[in-house]
Design goal:
By secondary structure, this protein is an alpha+beta fold. The chain has 5 helices and 7 strands. The chain folds into 2 domains: 44 residues; 122 residues, no CATH class.
Length: 190
Amino acid sequence: MPKNSSLSWTTEKLKALDLKQLQSLRGNAVRLGAGDLIQLCDDELQTRRVPKASRVGRTQPEHSETDVVTGYHFVCGRGLGVIEIEGGRFWSGSWVVADDNVRNSIKYGAYLALHEKKSDVSYRQGRIIDYRRSPRDMVSKTGDGIEFLVQGTREPYNWVGAGAGEKGYQWMQLSTRAGNRLAQAKASSA
């Protein structure tokens, strides 16, 4: 898929896709770095697609070292630690997340979703556009965490991720070629 892939996709074509097809198309656009198509898919998803609350899945397939997190899900009391800024953007509050995961995620158009409970759809979500390190004082925990700068969207997400903790990750398997580039980049930065 060329970087300028939105030329072959129109809003009408996207509307003809069902939710699974649209999410698959967005995943392929993320994998290939087609930012313009990612935005078209996000726009279509947020204007007319709202997932229904469903039973929380508790299992997640194993992921490899070259996989990337494309979605972060956090259990967060309504707005706890969230800082509103102009343009529909917000800071997420501080979370314990590996810096390497975050840096790679942003390159692949990752999203963030805040949930009251894992069984509820997200009440706040959007595309991650930046991050910063910050103190973990929002829940009386010590140490530093990561605050995400998020461009808010209206489309809620169902919980993704395994385990009993406060966070879940949506992992994406990169193609071998993209995975090799990512592994090389990690090796050269070490």
